[in-house]
Amino acid sequence: MSSNIEPLAREMAMRICRQSDMAEADIPRWVDLHWPCAAAMLESGVMNEAGEWVEDKDVRLGIEAYRERLFGNK
Predict the structure, then answer these.
(1) What are phi and psi of 47, to 5 degrees?
(2) Which domain holds residue 59?
(3) At what angle do helices 27-44 and 59-71 cross, to 10 degrees?
(4) How far apart are CA 43 and CA 66, in angstroms?
(5) 33-66 pLDDT tens trace
(6) What are the tens digits of pLDDT across the range 6-30?
(7) What is the pTM of this model?
């Protein structure tokens, strides 16, 4: 799965890792696994590009967007 948002989501996931003081050696694998979730959170508007939660947004929208990204619309 690839999209225009992938580079932005990967950068956001990398930023979250570094802000969390994750070991540099662990970051690439974590980003590979989690960028689709970051993309869904961005697309749904519940997180901003800095990886911060947007106030007054329902995180369930992001979770549903991630589910759709993984499994498609049903």
Answers:
(1) -130, 150
(2) 6-71
(3) 110
(4) 9
(5) 999 999 999 999 999 988 899 999 999 999 999 9
(6) 999 999 999 999 999 999 999 999 9
(7) 0.82
Residue 24 lies in a domain: yes
The tokens describing 35, both together, are 């960028």
User: How far apart (Å, rounded) are the C-alpha atoms in residues 48 and 71?
Assistant: 24
Residue 33 is predicted with a pLDDT of 95
Cα–Cα distance measured from residue 53 to residue 74, given in angstroms and rounded to the nearest whole number: 27
Query: Which amino acid does the sequence have at 40?
Result: A
Tell me which residue has tokens 């802000």: 19
- Separation of alpha carbons 40 and 30, rounded Å: 16
Domain count for the chain: 1
